[in-house]
Amino acid sequence: EKTGDEGLIRRVADALATSSPTMEERFMTAVRIRRAELRARALLAEIRSGLDTG
């Protein structure tokens, strides 16, 4: 997220997959979880700000 390089995640996943497909899938799962957490936090902040102004 910080680098803005979506390809970086794919390159890391591909490197992991060469030695362990299971590790690659776990890495991608961790990425999806972190992205979902960021979306959830943003939504909660939006809801919270609406409650403060409403």
Strand content: under 5%
Mean pLDDT equals: 93
Question: How would you characterize the largest beta sheet?
Answer: none
* SS class: mainly alpha
Form type: elongated
Rg (CA only): 16 Å
Q: Ends: how far apart?
A: 32 Å
Low-confidence stretches: none
Provide the number of structural domains: 1
**What is the overall number of helices?**
2
Instruction: Note the quaternary state here.
Output: single chain
Number of strands: 0
Secondary-structure element order, N to C: HH
Proportion in helices: over 70%
Outline the secondary-structure elements.
Layout: H1 6-19, H2 21-53
Helix pairs in contact: 1-2
Walkthrough of the structure:
- The protein is mainly α.
- The chain has one domain.
- It contains two helices and no strands.
- The longest helix has 33 residues, at 21-53.
- It is elongated, with a radius of gyration of 16 Å.
- The protein starts with 5 loop residues before the first helix and ends with a helix.
What's the short story on this structure?
The protein is mostly helical and 54 residues long.
State the main characteristics.
54 residues; elongated; mainly alpha; 0% strand
